[in-house]
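Got a spare moment? Tell me how you read both lines of this record:
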Amino acid sequence: MAGFSFGYLIIAIIVFIILLVIIRNIKIVPQAHAYVIERLGAYHKTWDTGLHIKVPIMDRISKKVSLKEQVVDFPPQPVITRDNVTMQIDTVVYFEITDPKLYTYGVERPLSAIENLTATTLRNIIGDLELDSTLTSRDTINDKIRIILDEATDAWGIKVIRVELKNILPPREIQDAMEKQMKAERERRARILDAEGEKRSQVLVAEGMKESAILKADAVREQKIREAAGEAEAILTVQKANADAIKMLNEAAPSDPVVALRSLEAFAKAADGQATKIIIPSEIQNMAGYVSSLKALWDDEKSNKE
């Protein structure tokens, strides 16, 4: 009985050990990660995201690789421009691992390799540029470094997405000179803007005076035109009255002094106030004398009847 119980205990222990081994060799690869598996010391396969079982003793996880985009900020590197100016430039590299196998076996310490390659590439590029070009050509420098790094790291299973120059620090004396130059440039631009503003102001004033003079001249001309039109209309009115009076006097019988007098009165009324603006024709003057004679005869005849 004791031997039977001991046998069950041994079996239970063995089953427990087997279950423990199986559980310990069940691996779950998380999202955006990959595991490089070696079997008996040689590369076997790459595990992607999901559940995997590792063969005990024979298999081992050589490297756990993150497939996310990674950012590495490298410390400032001393570089010399073509015009012999030494400056400090630090770079930021954005990359991602595209092949975990090449990343594991392609190069020893990949980040250190990328840093050294970035530094040497940066020195080569800056060495062909002058200080001013270096300060104004960040995008060009970034693209050149990215292309060179991407080609070199392709054999390591790494893709360089972009490279940025974080800081460009020239020597202190160069910075002082640049600040003085920028200050002088700003002052020059300010003077130019002031001069252009003054010029524009004078032009606007001159244009305003010109427009004002034109408007005044137009007003005077319009006033004279209206006055002349009024005088012409008055003259035409008087001339029409003159014509009507002459017609009435011509049609009146000499024996009818009353009609003649009325015609003369109508003429005088029409021409009232316009004597200074018109010239009475000679025939009207003669007719007026004739009517005056008729009026005198008429007055005499009335006196005799009374």
